[in-house]
Amino acid sequence: xxxxxxxxxxxxxxxxxxxxxxxxxxxxxxxxxxxxxxxxxxxx
Length: 44
Fold this sequence. Notes:
Elements: H1 7-16, H2 22-26, H3 37-43
């Protein structure tokens, strides 16, 4: 089926929900995870 996510799509989705991952921050307009990411994550 065309709408079934493949493993890469599933991994990307999970990474974008994980604030410990650069993909999380990149999907929110950052170049990479900031040095003070733990403090920024608490503000969300």
